[in-house]
DNA sequence: GTCTATACAGTGATAGAC
DNA sequence: GTCTATCACTGTATAGAC
Protein backbone atom coordinates (compact mmCIF):
# COMPACT_ATOMS: atom_id res chain seq x y z
CA UNK A 1 0.00 0.00 0.00
CA UNK A 2 3.08 2.18 0.47
CA UNK A 3 3.49 2.79 -3.22
CA UNK A 4 0.29 4.82 -3.26
CA UNK A 5 0.56 8.52 -2.67
CA UNK A 6 -0.29 9.98 0.71
CA UNK A 7 -3.62 11.31 -0.48
CA UNK A 8 -4.71 7.96 -1.83
CA UNK A 9 -3.77 6.22 1.40
CA UNK A 10 -5.72 8.77 3.40
CA UNK A 11 -8.80 8.33 1.26
CA UNK A 12 -8.82 4.55 1.20
CA UNK A 13 -8.20 4.36 4.94
CA UNK A 14 -10.90 6.90 5.71
CA UNK A 15 -13.43 5.15 3.44
CA UNK A 16 -12.72 1.88 5.11
CA UNK A 17 -13.00 3.20 8.67
CA UNK A 18 -15.97 5.49 8.06
CA UNK A 19 -17.95 2.54 6.77
CA UNK A 20 -16.76 0.03 9.34
CA UNK A 21 -16.99 2.18 12.46
CA UNK A 22 -19.10 5.14 11.45
CA UNK A 23 -18.05 8.71 10.79
CA UNK A 24 -18.21 10.10 14.30
CA UNK A 25 -16.62 7.09 15.91
CA UNK A 26 -13.63 7.43 13.61
CA UNK A 27 -11.12 10.02 14.77
CA UNK A 28 -8.55 11.84 12.71
CA UNK A 29 -5.89 10.23 14.85
CA UNK A 30 -6.91 6.73 13.87
CA UNK A 31 -6.99 7.63 10.20
CA UNK A 32 -3.49 9.07 10.16
CA UNK A 33 -2.16 6.21 12.21
CA UNK A 34 -3.54 3.49 9.96
CA UNK A 35 -2.68 5.43 6.84
CA UNK A 36 0.83 5.92 8.14
CA UNK A 37 1.01 9.68 7.63
CA UNK A 38 1.24 12.71 9.87
CA UNK A 39 -1.66 14.84 10.95
CA UNK A 40 -0.46 17.94 9.17
CA UNK A 41 -0.19 15.98 5.94
CA UNK A 42 -3.84 15.12 6.13
CA UNK A 43 -4.81 18.75 6.51
CA UNK A 44 -2.57 19.56 3.58
CA UNK A 45 -4.91 17.56 1.35
CA UNK A 46 -8.24 18.07 3.10
CA UNK A 47 -9.28 21.26 4.85
CA UNK A 48 -11.41 19.42 7.40
CA UNK A 49 -12.78 16.09 8.45
CA UNK A 50 -16.03 17.01 6.77
CA UNK A 51 -14.26 17.36 3.42
CA UNK A 52 -13.06 13.82 3.93
CA UNK A 53 -16.64 12.75 4.52
CA UNK A 54 -17.77 14.22 1.23
CA UNK A 55 -14.94 12.48 -0.58
CA UNK A 56 -15.92 9.21 1.11
CA UNK A 57 -19.51 9.48 -0.01
CA UNK A 58 -18.61 10.37 -3.58
CA UNK A 59 -16.16 7.52 -3.95
CA UNK A 60 -18.41 5.00 -2.26
CA UNK A 61 -21.29 5.94 -4.51
CA UNK A 62 -19.23 5.58 -7.66
CA UNK A 63 -17.75 2.29 -6.46
CA UNK A 64 -21.14 0.85 -5.54
CA UNK A 65 -22.63 1.82 -8.85
CA UNK A 66 -19.67 0.54 -10.83
CA UNK A 67 -19.81 -2.73 -8.94
CA UNK A 68 -23.49 -3.12 -9.69
CA UNK A 69 -22.93 -2.50 -13.40
CA UNK A 70 -20.13 -5.04 -13.56
CA UNK A 71 -22.08 -7.57 -11.56
CA UNK A 72 -25.04 -7.34 -13.91
CA UNK A 73 -23.08 -6.70 -17.11
CA UNK A 74 -23.66 -10.11 -18.62
CA UNK A 75 -27.27 -10.41 -17.53
CA UNK A 76 -30.22 -9.85 -19.78
CA UNK A 77 -31.92 -6.49 -19.27
CA UNK A 78 -35.26 -6.83 -17.55
CA UNK A 79 -36.09 -9.47 -15.01
CA UNK A 80 -32.60 -10.91 -14.83
CA UNK A 81 -30.87 -7.59 -14.20
CA UNK A 82 -33.54 -6.63 -11.71
CA UNK A 83 -32.89 -9.79 -9.76
CA UNK A 84 -29.19 -9.03 -10.19
CA UNK A 85 -29.62 -5.93 -8.04
CA UNK A 86 -30.67 -8.08 -5.12
CA UNK A 87 -28.09 -10.75 -5.86
CA UNK A 88 -25.39 -8.12 -5.97
CA UNK A 89 -26.14 -6.98 -2.45
CA UNK A 90 -26.59 -10.55 -1.30
CA UNK A 91 -23.11 -11.30 -2.55
CA UNK A 92 -21.75 -8.33 -0.63
CA UNK A 93 -23.48 -9.54 2.51
CA UNK A 94 -21.95 -12.97 2.12
CA UNK A 95 -18.39 -12.03 1.24
CA UNK A 96 -17.63 -8.79 3.09
CA UNK A 97 -19.07 -7.97 6.47
CA UNK A 98 -22.00 -5.89 5.46
CA UNK A 99 -22.83 -2.94 7.67
CA UNK A 100 -25.88 -1.69 5.80
CA UNK A 101 -26.17 0.90 3.08
CA UNK A 102 -23.42 3.47 3.58
CA UNK A 103 -25.67 6.37 2.65
CA UNK A 104 -28.48 5.45 4.96
CA UNK A 105 -25.99 5.00 7.75
CA UNK A 106 -24.62 8.47 7.23
CA UNK A 107 -28.07 10.02 6.95
CA UNK A 108 -29.04 8.40 10.24
CA UNK A 109 -25.79 9.13 12.01
CA UNK A 110 -25.70 12.81 11.11
CA UNK A 111 -29.15 14.42 11.24
CA UNK A 112 -27.60 17.72 10.17
CA UNK A 113 -25.85 16.65 7.00
CA UNK A 114 -24.09 19.25 4.87
CA UNK A 115 -25.37 20.11 1.43
CA UNK A 116 -22.85 18.15 -0.59
CA UNK A 117 -23.24 15.03 1.50
CA UNK A 118 -27.02 15.24 1.22
CA UNK A 119 -26.66 15.50 -2.52
CA UNK A 120 -24.62 12.30 -2.57
CA UNK A 121 -27.24 10.45 -0.57
CA UNK A 122 -29.94 11.56 -2.94
CA UNK A 123 -27.84 10.75 -5.97
CA UNK A 124 -27.36 7.23 -4.65
CA UNK A 125 -31.09 6.75 -4.15
CA UNK A 126 -31.86 8.20 -7.54
CA UNK A 127 -29.32 5.89 -9.16
CA UNK A 128 -31.05 2.86 -7.69
CA UNK A 129 -34.45 4.11 -8.77
CA UNK A 130 -33.27 4.69 -12.31
CA UNK A 131 -31.75 1.23 -12.50
CA UNK A 132 -34.94 -0.38 -11.26
CA UNK A 133 -37.16 1.68 -13.52
CA UNK A 134 -35.13 0.82 -16.59
CA UNK A 135 -35.49 -2.87 -15.93
CA UNK A 136 -39.19 -2.57 -15.25
CA UNK A 137 -39.69 -0.79 -18.57
CA UNK A 138 -37.90 -3.60 -20.36
CA UNK A 139 -40.11 -6.17 -18.64
CA UNK A 140 -43.30 -4.35 -19.42
CA UNK A 141 -42.86 -1.87 -22.20
CA UNK A 142 -46.24 -0.24 -21.73
CA UNK A 143 -46.09 0.49 -18.02
CA UNK A 144 -48.61 3.12 -16.91
CA UNK A 145 -46.54 5.96 -15.49
CA UNK A 146 -48.14 5.95 -12.06
CA UNK A 147 -47.84 2.21 -11.64
CA UNK A 148 -44.24 2.29 -12.81
CA UNK A 149 -43.30 4.75 -10.09
CA UNK A 150 -45.29 2.79 -7.56
CA UNK A 151 -43.58 -0.45 -8.42
CA UNK A 152 -40.17 1.18 -8.48
CA UNK A 153 -40.64 2.65 -5.02
CA UNK A 154 -41.90 -0.62 -3.65
CA UNK A 155 -38.90 -2.51 -4.97
CA UNK A 156 -36.60 0.14 -3.56
CA UNK A 157 -38.30 -0.15 -0.18
CA UNK A 158 -37.93 -3.90 -0.23
CA UNK A 159 -34.30 -3.59 -1.25
CA UNK A 160 -33.39 -1.15 1.49
CA UNK A 161 -35.65 -2.75 4.05
CA UNK A 162 -34.08 -6.15 3.50
CA UNK A 163 -30.58 -4.70 3.73
CA UNK A 164 -31.53 -3.07 6.96
CA UNK A 165 -33.04 -6.16 8.54
CA UNK A 166 -30.12 -8.20 7.33
CA UNK A 167 -27.70 -5.92 9.07
CA UNK A 168 -29.68 -5.76 12.30
CA UNK A 169 -30.13 -9.51 12.45
CA UNK A 170 -26.62 -10.15 11.15
CA UNK A 171 -28.08 -12.55 8.64
CA UNK A 172 -28.45 -12.90 4.89
CA UNK A 173 -31.85 -14.47 5.38
CA UNK A 174 -33.97 -11.33 5.05
CA UNK A 175 -32.30 -10.58 1.73
CA UNK A 176 -32.71 -14.13 0.48
CA UNK A 177 -36.37 -14.13 1.41
CA UNK A 178 -36.87 -10.76 -0.19
CA UNK A 179 -35.27 -12.04 -3.37
CA UNK A 180 -37.85 -14.81 -3.52
CA UNK A 181 -40.70 -12.42 -2.93
CA UNK A 182 -39.45 -10.07 -5.62
CA UNK A 183 -39.16 -12.93 -8.06
CA UNK A 184 -42.80 -13.74 -7.45
CA UNK A 185 -43.83 -10.12 -7.75
CA UNK A 186 -42.24 -9.54 -11.13
CA UNK A 187 -43.37 -12.92 -12.42
CA UNK A 188 -46.89 -11.55 -12.66
CA UNK A 189 -45.93 -8.57 -14.82
CA UNK B 1 -41.67 20.47 34.01
CA UNK B 2 -40.11 21.50 37.29
CA UNK B 3 -42.56 19.50 39.34
CA UNK B 4 -41.10 16.28 37.99
CA UNK B 5 -38.29 14.69 39.93
CA UNK B 6 -34.72 15.11 38.77
CA UNK B 7 -34.54 11.59 37.42
CA UNK B 8 -37.65 12.01 35.32
CA UNK B 9 -36.36 15.27 33.87
CA UNK B 10 -33.07 13.64 32.99
CA UNK B 11 -34.77 10.77 31.23
CA UNK B 12 -37.24 12.80 29.24
CA UNK B 13 -34.56 15.26 28.18
CA UNK B 14 -32.16 12.51 27.19
CA UNK B 15 -34.83 10.65 25.24
CA UNK B 16 -35.71 13.79 23.37
CA UNK B 17 -32.12 14.72 22.51
CA UNK B 18 -30.94 11.21 21.70
CA UNK B 19 -33.68 10.87 19.15
CA UNK B 20 -33.41 14.38 17.72
CA UNK B 21 -29.64 14.66 17.50
CA UNK B 22 -28.36 11.14 17.85
CA UNK B 23 -26.62 9.50 20.79
CA UNK B 24 -23.06 10.46 20.07
CA UNK B 25 -23.86 14.01 19.07
CA UNK B 26 -25.60 14.57 22.39
CA UNK B 27 -23.21 15.39 25.21
CA UNK B 28 -23.77 14.98 28.91
CA UNK B 29 -23.37 18.72 29.27
CA UNK B 30 -26.29 19.46 27.00
CA UNK B 31 -28.51 17.00 28.82
CA UNK B 32 -27.86 18.44 32.24
CA UNK B 33 -28.23 21.96 30.95
CA UNK B 34 -31.61 21.38 29.31
CA UNK B 35 -32.80 19.25 32.19
CA UNK B 36 -31.71 21.95 34.61
CA UNK B 37 -29.70 19.74 36.93
CA UNK B 38 -26.06 19.40 37.87
CA UNK B 39 -23.69 16.89 36.39
CA UNK B 40 -23.10 15.07 39.65
CA UNK B 41 -26.85 14.63 40.05
CA UNK B 42 -27.03 12.80 36.77
CA UNK B 43 -24.33 10.38 37.81
CA UNK B 44 -26.22 9.87 41.06
CA UNK B 45 -29.03 8.27 39.08
CA UNK B 46 -27.14 6.74 36.16
CA UNK B 47 -23.67 5.23 36.37
CA UNK B 48 -22.77 6.18 32.83
CA UNK B 49 -24.02 7.67 29.60
CA UNK B 50 -24.47 4.16 28.29
CA UNK B 51 -26.92 3.37 31.09
CA UNK B 52 -28.90 6.37 29.91
CA UNK B 53 -28.89 4.93 26.41
CA UNK B 54 -30.38 1.66 27.60
CA UNK B 55 -33.06 3.53 29.51
CA UNK B 56 -33.81 5.57 26.40
CA UNK B 57 -34.27 2.49 24.25
CA UNK B 58 -36.47 0.72 26.77
CA UNK B 59 -38.75 3.70 27.27
CA UNK B 60 -38.94 4.51 23.57
CA UNK B 61 -39.85 0.94 22.76
CA UNK B 62 -42.62 0.81 25.35
CA UNK B 63 -43.93 4.22 24.27
CA UNK B 64 -43.94 3.30 20.59
CA UNK B 65 -45.73 0.07 21.25
CA UNK B 66 -48.24 1.67 23.59
CA UNK B 67 -48.93 4.35 21.03
CA UNK B 68 -49.53 1.79 18.32
CA UNK B 69 -51.96 -0.12 20.52
CA UNK B 70 -53.92 3.01 21.38
CA UNK B 71 -53.91 4.18 17.79
CA UNK B 72 -55.37 0.90 16.57
CA UNK B 73 -57.50 0.16 19.63
CA UNK B 74 -60.83 0.85 18.00
CA UNK B 75 -59.96 -0.74 14.68
CA UNK B 76 -61.11 -4.15 13.61
CA UNK B 77 -58.45 -6.83 13.89
CA UNK B 78 -57.14 -7.93 10.52
CA UNK B 79 -56.88 -5.68 7.52
CA UNK B 80 -57.89 -2.53 9.34
CA UNK B 81 -55.38 -2.90 12.14
CA UNK B 82 -52.70 -3.86 9.68
CA UNK B 83 -53.31 -0.67 7.74
CA UNK B 84 -53.37 1.08 11.10
CA UNK B 85 -49.71 0.23 11.58
CA UNK B 86 -48.82 2.26 8.52
CA UNK B 87 -51.27 5.02 9.35
CA UNK B 88 -49.81 5.25 12.82
CA UNK B 89 -46.37 5.98 11.48
CA UNK B 90 -47.78 8.26 8.83
CA UNK B 91 -49.42 10.29 11.55
CA UNK B 92 -46.13 10.53 13.40
CA UNK B 93 -44.41 11.72 10.24
CA UNK B 94 -47.02 14.40 9.75
CA UNK B 95 -47.29 15.73 13.29
CA UNK B 96 -43.83 15.42 14.85
CA UNK B 97 -40.64 15.79 12.87
CA UNK B 98 -39.89 12.20 12.12
CA UNK B 99 -36.24 11.19 12.21
CA UNK B 100 -36.68 7.55 11.28
CA UNK B 101 -37.05 4.51 13.47
CA UNK B 102 -35.16 5.14 16.72
CA UNK B 103 -33.86 1.59 16.90
CA UNK B 104 -32.51 1.47 13.39
CA UNK B 105 -30.84 4.79 13.96
CA UNK B 106 -29.08 3.50 17.03
CA UNK B 107 -28.07 0.27 15.35
CA UNK B 108 -26.55 2.25 12.49
CA UNK B 109 -24.95 4.88 14.67
CA UNK B 110 -23.26 2.45 17.03
CA UNK B 111 -21.90 -0.63 15.23
CA UNK B 112 -20.69 -1.99 18.56
CA UNK B 113 -23.89 -1.91 20.53
CA UNK B 114 -23.95 -3.31 24.06
CA UNK B 115 -25.94 -6.41 24.87
CA UNK B 116 -28.89 -4.76 26.52
CA UNK B 117 -29.28 -2.20 23.75
CA UNK B 118 -29.12 -4.91 21.13
CA UNK B 119 -31.82 -6.79 22.97
CA UNK B 120 -34.05 -3.72 22.86
CA UNK B 121 -33.56 -3.35 19.11
CA UNK B 122 -34.47 -6.97 18.56
CA UNK B 123 -37.44 -6.74 20.90
CA UNK B 124 -38.74 -3.81 18.90
CA UNK B 125 -38.44 -5.69 15.62
CA UNK B 126 -40.03 -8.76 17.12
CA UNK B 127 -42.90 -6.68 18.45
CA UNK B 128 -43.65 -5.38 14.98
CA UNK B 129 -43.45 -8.84 13.48
CA UNK B 130 -45.83 -10.24 16.05
CA UNK B 131 -48.30 -7.44 15.46
CA UNK B 132 -48.22 -7.97 11.71
CA UNK B 133 -48.46 -11.75 12.00
CA UNK B 134 -51.47 -11.55 14.27
CA UNK B 135 -53.36 -9.40 11.80
CA UNK B 136 -52.41 -11.64 8.90
CA UNK B 137 -53.74 -14.66 10.74
CA UNK B 138 -57.04 -12.88 11.31
CA UNK B 139 -57.25 -11.99 7.63
CA UNK B 140 -56.48 -15.48 6.46
CA UNK B 141 -57.02 -18.03 9.15
CA UNK B 142 -55.39 -20.86 7.27
CA UNK B 143 -52.11 -19.22 6.33
CA UNK B 144 -49.40 -21.74 5.37
CA UNK B 145 -46.61 -21.22 7.87
CA UNK B 146 -43.92 -20.46 5.32
CA UNK B 147 -46.04 -17.97 3.44
CA UNK B 148 -47.09 -16.31 6.66
CA UNK B 149 -43.49 -15.62 7.60
CA UNK B 150 -42.70 -14.52 4.09
CA UNK B 151 -45.59 -12.08 4.03
CA UNK B 152 -44.77 -10.79 7.49
CA UNK B 153 -41.18 -10.08 6.57
CA UNK B 154 -42.19 -8.39 3.36
CA UNK B 155 -44.59 -6.08 5.15
CA UNK B 156 -41.94 -5.31 7.75
CA UNK B 157 -39.46 -4.49 4.99
CA UNK B 158 -41.96 -2.22 3.31
CA UNK B 159 -42.76 -0.55 6.63
CA UNK B 160 -39.15 0.12 7.53
CA UNK B 161 -38.10 0.87 3.98
CA UNK B 162 -40.82 3.48 3.61
CA UNK B 163 -39.94 5.07 6.93
CA UNK B 164 -36.36 5.24 5.80
CA UNK B 165 -37.08 6.79 2.42
CA UNK B 166 -39.51 9.19 4.05
CA UNK B 167 -36.84 10.40 6.40
CA UNK B 168 -34.18 10.73 3.74
CA UNK B 169 -36.45 12.58 1.36
CA UNK B 170 -38.06 14.53 4.19
CA UNK B 171 -41.44 13.59 2.80
CA UNK B 172 -44.50 11.59 3.79
CA UNK B 173 -44.95 10.50 0.20
CA UNK B 174 -43.03 7.22 0.37
CA UNK B 175 -45.15 6.16 3.32
CA UNK B 176 -48.39 7.20 1.63
CA UNK B 177 -47.46 5.31 -1.50
CA UNK B 178 -46.47 2.28 0.51
CA UNK B 179 -49.80 2.37 2.28
CA UNK B 180 -51.56 2.15 -1.06
CA UNK B 181 -49.39 -0.72 -2.20
CA UNK B 182 -49.97 -2.62 1.01
CA UNK B 183 -53.70 -2.12 0.69
CA UNK B 184 -53.56 -3.73 -2.74
CA UNK B 185 -51.35 -6.55 -1.51
CA UNK B 186 -53.62 -7.61 1.32
CA UNK B 187 -56.74 -7.17 -0.81
CA UNK B 188 -55.82 -10.33 -2.67
CA UNK B 189 -55.56 -12.47 0.47
C1' DG C 1 5.44 18.27 1.33
C1' DT C 2 6.06 15.88 5.35
C1' DC C 3 7.19 15.83 10.04
C1' DT C 4 6.94 17.06 15.56
C1' DA C 5 4.83 19.59 18.86
C1' DT C 6 1.15 22.04 20.49
C1' DA C 7 -3.23 24.81 20.94
C1' DC C 8 -7.75 24.75 22.59
C1' DA C 9 -12.38 23.22 23.03
C1' DG C 10 -15.08 19.51 24.41
C1' DT C 11 -15.88 14.85 26.35
C1' DG C 12 -17.37 11.59 30.23
C1' DA C 13 -16.66 11.10 34.94
C1' DT C 14 -15.36 12.34 40.29
C1' DA C 15 -14.21 14.68 44.67
C1' DG C 16 -15.64 17.23 48.20
C1' DA C 17 -18.36 21.25 50.17
C1' DC C 18 -22.97 22.44 51.46
C1' DG D 1 -29.24 14.74 47.18
C1' DT D 2 -27.69 18.62 44.85
C1' DC D 3 -24.22 21.75 43.94
C1' DT D 4 -19.25 23.79 42.22
C1' DA D 5 -14.90 22.78 40.69
C1' DT D 6 -11.86 19.93 38.52
C1' DC D 7 -10.09 15.65 36.69
C1' DA D 8 -7.85 13.00 32.73
C1' DC D 9 -8.58 12.30 28.19
C1' DT D 10 -9.68 12.80 23.23
C1' DG D 11 -11.37 15.57 19.52
C1' DT D 12 -10.12 18.67 15.48
C1' DA D 13 -7.05 21.83 13.80
C1' DT D 14 -2.37 24.75 13.32
C1' DA D 15 2.40 26.58 13.75
C1' DG D 16 6.83 26.12 12.71
C1' DA D 17 11.10 23.22 11.93
C1' DC D 18 13.22 20.20 8.60
TrEMBL record, chains A, B:
Q: Which residues form the HTH tetR-type domain?
A: 4-64
GO molecular function (one): DNA binding
Q: Which residues bind DNA?
A: 27-46
Q: Which PROSITE patterns match?
A: HTH_TETR_2 (PS50977)
The question of whether DNA-binding is a record keyword is answered with yes
Pfam family name, one: TetR_N
What InterPro entries has UniProt attached to this entry?
Homeodomain-like_sf (IPR009057), HTH_TetR (IPR001647), Tet_transcr_reg_TetR-rel_C_sf (IPR036271)
Is Membrane tagged as a keyword? no
Q: Domain of life, per the record? A: Bacteria
Print the keywords alphabetically: DNA-binding, Transcription, Transcription regulation
Name recorded for this polypeptide:
TetR family transcriptional regulator
List the source organism. Answer: Chitinophaga niastensis
User: What lineage is on file?
Assistant: Bacteria, Pseudomonadati, Bacteroidota, Chitinophagia, Chitinophagales
